[in-house]
Amino acid sequence: MDRSIVMSALAVGCAGWLCGLLMARTKPVLPFAVLVVLAAVAAATLPALRLLAAPATQAWGRGLAAGGLAALLAGLAVQPSADPSDERRAAAGAAAMASAAVAVVAATMLWMGPALLDALVGIATGWLAVSLVLRAGEWTTAFGTGFVTTLAATVALGHFREAAAAQTTPWMASALAIGALVPILLLATAAVARRVVRTAAVVALVVAVMAGAAAFVGTRTLHDPRFLTAAGIGLVLSLMLWWLLAEGERDLPLHGALPALVALGSGIAAFYALAGYGIGIMLIAGWLPAGLLMGWGLLSSAPRASGDRLIPLWLFGVLLLLYRLLTQRFQDDLGAAALTDHFAIFATLVGAILPSLLGGFLDGSSSEGAEPAAARLVRLALALTGAAAFGATLLVLWGAKAALGLLGGLMLGVVISGAGVPGALLALAVALPLMQWSHALLLISAQTRAEKVRVLIWLVAITGVIIVAAGAWRPGVRPTRGAQEGAGP
Fold first, then answer.
1. pLDDT band for position 482 (50/70/90)?
2. Strand ranges inside 364-468, DSSP E
3. In this predicted structure, which of 33-42, 353-362, 441-450 has the lowest mean pLDDT?
4. Which of 243, 335, 342, 394 is the most exposed place for a label (fewest CB within 10 A)?
5. pTM, whole model, 2 decimals?
6. Which H or E element spans position 182?
């Protein structure tokens, strides 16, 4: 069954690439210099030439050549000169990228055998190198690079889950099956992509189809409902990031730190569900609505601008996924890092984001006028409460190593994030309560994993309500003196 899924994914990838190329209606230009380089890399991996002696290096080189060729073929459906407001071409280009990614990963799973992990890393490396050389399609190229890296890393993590299982479970094939659904749905939307269908109903329908497929795979193939949980987190994350970035364009005090914190929190929740594999499933599912939102330019006036805002957040998630793959693959070399070591890294990232987030919230008064004193006091109280709550929560959930990571991240965030004086002061507001209450908080942290998961779910729900309320609430403003003088009679 696993092989049939992989073969089907390969067929879907090849057919999807061809359909995307035809729907994009571009004038394909094949750079032969890049082809020559890729052919040379592939030739160097031949055992008869003995240029690369180590089998792992040969597999990595073959993966690099395959990934570069796939990126080259996918780039034929994307042209930098294309009209950025043409939703059909944008969606078709994204579909071609995703299709080529699925095809090359599926082919590698079929033919690389025991050298699969080296080849998967080579695929992502070759794709990235060719994409940087071609620089075709701006956000579409970044979308393809992020998607193929996500898919390859998730399949690699699925390999480790299968190796550790008492009975072989098709974790790799399941990740590939969900990934193959992305280009199918992108092509379906590209076929009807017009301004008249740029509605929330279309996005909601696509999200529902992906959620249904994840539920089917999780219950029928893996017999693990957490698969749907991880995919659902990714789908919700895409919509939440779109909402936050759209609100940011309307000058709300929702700075870039808040979307990054939401992305990090979602990654932590997915990690609780299925460890690093859960982060991968979250990202694979989330790339679908992200591609639609960018292709239709729903974040701003042009897909390029919207992609420039959303793509870095997804690449942030891809880096989290690669971090987990590194610790999983080289566990013996890294000294068998414990789960608390991973949480220390997460706490460091939270600490690096907090100064900008809290400082931006405190200084988030409207530029159109002075904020009332009462609203300013409420904002200050919320900022101080949030500062204390973040530190206490991390300590309760993850223990002493999280406290050390949080303090290190706070130092980093104060120095390089541009948080300013308010952010630096609120970083102290995060750290100082820990100096007094760490002993009591560490005693509370001695609870079972199930209790911690329950606490995390409640915290995520409460945080989501606060974010929505903050976006919907507009504090009243008083006109400035200059505005009053310049007003008409």
1. very low
2. 369-370
3. 441-450
4. 335
5. 0.79
6. helix 171-191
